[in-house]
Amino acid sequence: DTGNRLRFQLELEFVQCLANPNYLNFLAQRGYFKDKAFVNYLKYLLYWKEPEYAKYLKYPQCLHMLELLQYEHFRKELVNAQCAKFIDEQQILHWQHYSRKRMRLQQALAEQQQQNNTSVK
């Protein structure tokens, strides 16, 4: 159904926007997190945590943000630009650590495969 597909695409895009702390700060400063209907919508979007939906996400950190947005205290803190900046910096540090760790694992795997290939010959 075209309507369901459009809804899926819109909700997918919106959920992934939640990975951006600056966007969360924007929403907080404009009062969206004080709107009960919007907060209920965030609760409804928790279905994205299910594997059948989560597999479509490019930015899985959005699920963590969606989970944190269920807490009023977190929503209130997002009004502060320093809070958004801190979250942004933590995401970058996490990404850098993950990238370095992944590169080391790939190098080790490549070395192991090379050793296996030379020992087979």
TrEMBL record:
Keyword flag Transcription: yes
Pfam family, any one: Med31
Location(s) in or outside the cell: Nucleus
UniProt keyword annotation of Manganese present: no
Keywords attached to this entry: Activator, Nucleus, Transcription, Transcription regulation
MF term (GO), any: transcription coregulator activity
CC terms in the record's Gene Ontology section: mediator complex
Main localization, broad class: nucleus
PANTHER family xrefs: MEDIATOR OF RNA POLYMERASE II TRANSCRIPTION SUBUNIT 31
Subunit structure, as described in the record: Component of the Mediator complex.
Annotated family: Belongs to the Mediator complex subunit 31 family.
Function: Component of the Mediator complex, a coactivator involved in the regulated transcription of nearly all RNA polymerase II-dependent genes. Mediator functions as a bridge to convey information from gene-specific regulatory proteins to the basal RNA polymerase II transcription machinery. Mediator is recruited to promoters by direct interactions with regulatory proteins and serves as a scaffold for the assembly of a functional preinitiation complex with RNA polymerase II and the general transcription factors.
The protein, known as: Mediator of RNA polymerase II transcription subunit 31
Annotated organism of origin: Phasianus colchicus
Lineage: Eukaryota, Metazoa, Chordata, Craniata, Vertebrata
